[in-house]
Amino acid sequence: MMVTNAVLGGIADTVAQTITSVQQRANRKQGSGTRDDPTSIEIQDLSKKDSRGDVYPDPRALATPFDFERLTRFMAYGFAMAPITFKWFGFLSRAFPMTKTSAFVPALKRVVVDQIAFAPVSVALFFSVMTVAEGGGRRAVALKLKDMYLPTLKANYMVWPAVQIINFRLMPVQFQLPFVSTIGIAWTAYLSLSNASEDDTLQHQNIAPYSSNIRLE
């Protein structure tokens, strides 16, 4: 399950990076600035020579490179979180056992406890761990949580209660984590995009996401 969770986390981040790359390519095709902006270069002009005979870079050279370090962080996080999540699901199954005559109510109780106790902690843990893994300090963690925690938690409550009802109601304990991880590919991709977009925001504000006392020039 740890390996499976790591692989699924890697797939999710690959999807997120692919989405980002496609979006950036589309933006470049439309032009990154207005025609009055002397610093903007239209994508169709990149292969032309200038007055000195120099060739502009090939458009493919401007594509965002795949971030293997980011991929490794997501895989490592998924690997490390698998035992914690599995133990949590085991606790819920013992605390709220389901029987043939009573299944829906215990499953509903598991969902309520999971979303009240575990979901807020897991969202905070994700952004904190990822920021620290990127080299950020306490200030970077605080800024990330300030900007991303509540929106992500709200999104969580729109998605996961329904998923967990199915998970706790129909899935045996040994299959609950793989089921959640598989459904969670889209969710993890969303987290990956959110985490990366917040890092870009910090860079644009001259706040280093990787250090609490280093400014990006």
From TrEMBL:
- In what way does this protein cross or attach to the membrane? Multi-pass membrane protein
Where are the bilayer-spanning segments?
74-96, 116-136
Cellular compartments annotated? Membrane
Q: Which UniProt keywords apply?
A: Membrane, Transmembrane, Transmembrane helix
Instruction: Cite the Pfam families for this sequence.
Output: Mpv17_PMP22 (PF04117)
Membership in a protein family: Belongs to the peroxisomal membrane protein PXMP2/4 family.
Q: Does the keyword Transferase apply?
A: no
Lineage of the native species? Eukaryota, Fungi, Dikarya, Ascomycota, Pezizomycotina
Q: What is this protein called?
A: Uncharacterized protein
Q: Mind naming one GO cellular-component term on file for this protein? A: mitochondrion
> What is the species of this protein?
Xylaria hypoxylon
Predominantly, its location class is: membrane
What highest taxon heads this organism's lineage? Eukaryota
Q: Does the keyword Membrane apply?
A: yes
